[in-house]
## 1
Amino acid sequence: MSNELEVVRRVINEHHTVRDSIKLVGDQLTDLEVFIALRATDSEWVPEKLDNFPEKLKGLQRKMSALQEGLINHSKFEEECLWPILGDLLTEAVLIEHRELGKEVTRVKSMVDDNNFTGLNWREQVQKQWQIRDALRDVLAQAEGHAAREDAILYMVEKALEARAKQPQQVPA
């Protein structure tokens, strides 16, 4: 039983790490939003200024890669260790959300990785930048929502496991 409690606590702690990664991507997104907003309102924008945008995206790409890798590793651990604790239905629900989140992170990461603005006019460039921003916001909200739902379940399981641990052990007759 203490092993189950350790697993639950580890998953909860990993969620804090995942949230830190989400925050790093979100912080990078905020920098990107400022860049886009300034660009969208600057009627004197010249194409040479676009060179700054790929630099901003490189930082975002690194953080998205770290988030994606962290989510993959965390999901693998959960899939291996939570089944005996949560049972079939809850684990299946968690796995469904992991697959959905993984697909969405991959889709958004490919948008961020494809930062080719060649041949786009000023409006198309700004539109593409806003699309990236909106997709990032959505995937970060999805990841945060998933972690919050899992945490609610895990905190209840943790409470039950702690209560069981306090009960006197039955000696077999």
## 2
Amino acid sequence: MKRLLFALSILTSIHANEISISHHHLNELTGNPDAQYKPVAIAEEMPDPTEIRRGKRKRFVITYSQVTQSEINSSFTMSPNANSSYQLNNDEMNEMMRENLELSDSHVIAVEYFLNENFSIELSDTYRHYSMDGMQVGDANGGNLLQGAGTFGFDQNDEIHDIQIGAKYSIKVVDVPNFEVELGAKATVGVVHLNSTSTFDFGPGQRDQNNFNDFAGYSYGVGLNAKVTLFEHFFLQGGIEQRNYVMAPIEYDNGVSHQIDQDGLLVFLGIGVQF
């Protein structure tokens, strides 16, 4: 009962903005009549803003990036069907594609979720569109085309979606109110969907168009990125990624087989929001 009355008296004193506890009360509370106590000064201070921000991580992150540079090495292997109207040499096809097939559009859309302050999982789609600037003309070198024609026209159009899931480690190197700088590293694996159309034109009435639209293989890679966040929610991000693509032979609807092998670097720059 005495302890209850003592606690009530302390509570009343706190609400009155002053605490006054005698040695007699403390000795009675602790049950030690010989104990000695010294007063301790209590000062009110503002909390450290750095300590308040520590551990304050936005969990959901959405990013849209443009691929600003692509250093992807590609090789192409054609395996024509026996009934096809053309029999083209692989070296000839490789040279034509390397010289004329260009990256016309590429972007990355990513959604990221932070499990804790540093580790996150990321789901993303890297889109690349390769096309030729008009119909290219080649020489069959020996008249291997239908009816002995020595030239042909060729056009190629490839749309690639690399759908990835990965793990990422990030660390903030600058963390002050309304401004953050963050560095990250990630490893990802993905599945590759390809929509590819090849068109061969050998003259009047001699035109082959082949299409493939399906999953074509898988990918894997690692990347580094830097992110600058302004006002906690909006950021700019840039990075570099090394990717390798393992593609199965692509069989077009007319029986022609086409193998694409790719690996190399992608450089990207983007914007995003986090909440």
## 3
Amino acid sequence: MTENDLINQIVEAAFNHLNLRESGAISNYAFYEKNVLHIVNDITKDYTPEGTPFVRFRLKSSDTLMFDSVYFPASAVAKFFTQARLKADGIFEDEDLRRWFTVQQTILMTAVLLFALYHKLKLSLEITATEVLSNFEENVQKGQDAIESEKGRKTKKTSFKDKRDELFENYKNQVSEFWRTLEEATEMQKKVELAEVYPSISKHWKAINTLLQKDFPNWRDYAKTGEFADTPDDLLEKLWDTEKEKLSVLAIEHAARRVGLIKPYGVEESVLEARKRGFKATGYSTRRLFSFLEEGERQRKLSAPK
């Protein structure tokens, strides 16, 4: 596979990651931002006659087109691939895992790049127009002051520095808010997935408990069949001492592990020990996990087609 072919595949996968239609246009990409869905619908991809991928951004204000331009992401994708490969070399010994990690992370970074460009372009257009207006006001004021001075009248210089500083600070704050909210969106996606998988996992644990109570032979083997092959052994051990009313504690921990929820900081020693033994313990309390579940369920309702 040539480098150009790989870049083409990565750009294609990045668009798929952003929930695209076959036409290549982003549609209904739900971006969690304080319980508000932000919809991106004006990015399309295409190829030059030579086969080089490019991205077209069309930004609108209401129904008025503000910006229409193309972007060639090949250079950025190549940089992402190089950095991801360096990270993979330091994490994995197996070459297949290195390759998988490198490609997946490059796809993710490319998707984030396209999404960030869209929002930052729109923000830049808005703030640049405001800067021009501010510059216009400053020039007009200087012109008026010059006329008054020519007439022999005393004038006082008006400073526009505070207004410019306020504009730049506002821009910085909005960019920071974008990245913070994007991080929240990533976590919210896991919470939505938690809401999707929990019902079936909850039923699974009730079924396992029933088999255990009836001394069903090989109940452990049943517990780890099919889609539930990931049923954790450390949670199965706890089933012996878990009352029927508390099965949800095991079920929510199992569901959270499946979707990749994990507490990285301030984790108890017992959780770290479990992780060292190969168990992907989340480190979150049961109460916290159920609050994540509620958030995911609310977001699913917000994202549901009207």
## 4
Amino acid sequence: MRKHSPFGFTLLLIGAISLSAWGCATTPPGADPAAGTPRLTVSPTTVTLGVAKIMGTRFTFQGSGFPAGENVIIAASGPKDTYVTLALARVNPDGTFFEEMSDGDTARLVKATAILKADITRNEKMEAVLVISRPAIPVGKYKVTATSMIKNVTAEAALEFDEPSGIDFVMDWLGKVTGKIAYK
């Protein structure tokens, strides 16, 4: 007959207690326990601040663990007390949301005015022209926060804005030559 070691039993007991304590974690205030812990994913996580680069970038925001049916404000805060509202999303019945900033008019407006701090005007052909008259938001690391409007459930993710690259300068110069970007 085989004898069991008291060390093995002690290890098993510690493991069981640890697992039960882990399973009793509290839910953040306002979160829907059925939906799980609120989470936010941002893509891309790093982008350069070239004018053409920002305007051509498809930003996506995915969240889970939020109260169903609520609206979520997605904003970024970063260096020099910068605060920028990026998007508004509606939470699905399963507690998830997906919002995209790509080529639509609202997305272009947010990218131009909030991130690049540019103005938008029209040329003689009635095409949109970005007017750059002041610096974009500061380079650095930003905390993107998704906050539900009623129950105040939040989740965070990171987003970094880097200095424009050499390619960005070439693309922005082409935008200027073609009349899509104006500098004042």
